[in-house]
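Wait, mind explaining this?

_____
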Amino acid sequence: MEEKKFRTGFVLSGGGARGFAHLGFIQALNEAGIFPDLISGTSAGALIGVLIADGYSPKEILRLLHTNSRLELMRPTMPREGLLQISGIQKILKANLRATKFEELKIPLYVTASDINNGKVVYFSSGDLLDIVMASMSIPVLFQPVMIDNIQYVDGGVFDNLPVHPIEKKCETLIGSFVNPVGRIEKLSGLINIAERTFTLNLAKEVTEKSDKFDLLVAPPALRNYGILDPDKAEELFSLGYNATREKLRDEEIRKALKL
């Protein structure tokens, strides 16, 4: 049996703008004295994960990423390989990441991306950070793939939206944040909205398949009321993740599992 080298592992799902809820989740855990020794993230979870691993606090990240304009983070492009560009997020990372390689991060990190040439999931934990994180966030159809070593990569959620696999045997305690619940939508219109809905429906199955692997898994149902491409509700999403996690931490069984 492989020795568990890390005490606490955080797993952060994809979910676009809903990823702001990850920050509230981490804030609540930090206030309870729980910090990650290892992080695994997909898409928005990779974005939040890399900044946490680089030494930023949840509230610092909220300030870095918070914008009232979707166009500041994502811009329309000619629809050849993707409908939108996420150059705004890339600029934020370039300007604020202190580490340029995984090996320079304060906390070890796994980033999940999907190799669409070979049809497989890849868990990155070494090498240059920026392109890998951007690849992990590149939702198919909406964003163009990212080329790394002559391979095209897209959003890690295509294969693994709750990437517990690379760290489940390495950690004594596993804590997850899942931000993709889905509910009924009466009417969809526009290519971007239909592409977004199709992608999120595929992601939703992860929480039921993997929930038993976690000592604590937070998946607030109210997140279904928020779109994955709308960053203007960042503070609401932060509060939603924070309050849901605080509520979970009141449960005696969970407190016992986390040794609180």
